[in-house]
Amino acid sequence: MPSVSSLERRCRDQEVAIERLMREGQVLRDENADLRCQLDAARTPLAVDGGVDRLEAMLPAGPAAAATARATLTRWLAGHVPGEVLEDTRLLATELVANSIGHAELPDEASLRLAVQLSGGALRVEVRDPGTCGEIVPREPDRERGGGFGLYLVDLISTRWGVNRTGGTHVWFEVDAVGATD
Fold first, then answer.
1. Contacts of the segment 25-32: beta carbons below 8 A, 24+ positions apart
2. Residue of 60 and 148 predicted with greater confidence
3. How far apart are CA 138 and CA 127, in angstroms?
4. Partner of 113 for a Cys bridge, out of 37, 125, 128, 162, CB 3.0 to 4.6 A?
5. 106-119 burial code (b ≥16 CB/10 A, e <16)
């Protein structure tokens, strides 16, 4: 018959294994949600309707949200805006998504909405989350400890940006998209 200590050790080992599998399962769920968003974006061609293009996607508010936003923007905008506009847009959207994930105190099941509109040579991107707390202002980046780069970059690179706090938090920016095919 096994000793009490060996049974306790096996029990702890099993608990550790279960926790690891639970974490791996969550990573797989997040990756699957990311792939579903990318698939939805791939199935949605950029359509022109009277010179205004608008697309929206829901992003699970997890560790893959920023990567999903970048992939979605690339799918939607590649070939429709100049390459440097796409790169700036991907960077700034990543910062807004990261801010939502990091500062909005979102529940695990929350989603973010990514909205893109191309009209009259301007590209507008909005990231919406259900959070309502905190002040949204750029601050000087902390180059030693990190942080503070998100809105600093948005303020530096975008043509204009703003915040709407109706029904959650909507942070948007616009960039000049001269040469865009709208």
1. 27/63, 30/60, 30/62, 30/63, 30/64, 31/64
2. 60
3. 16
4. 128
5. beeebbbbbebbbb
Q: How far apart are CA 139 and CA 150, in angstroms?
A: 9
Q: Per residue in 73-90, pLDDT tens?
A: 998 888 888 999 999 999
Closest CA to 165 of 138, 143, 141, 134: 134
Half-sphere exposure at residue 89, Cβ-oriented, CA atoms within 13 angstroms: 31
| Helix/strand/coil for 7 | helix
- Only one residue has tokens 């939805």, namely 40
pLDDT in tens, 106-164: 777 888 999 999 888 899 999 998 888 777 776 776 677 777 678 889 989 999 999 99
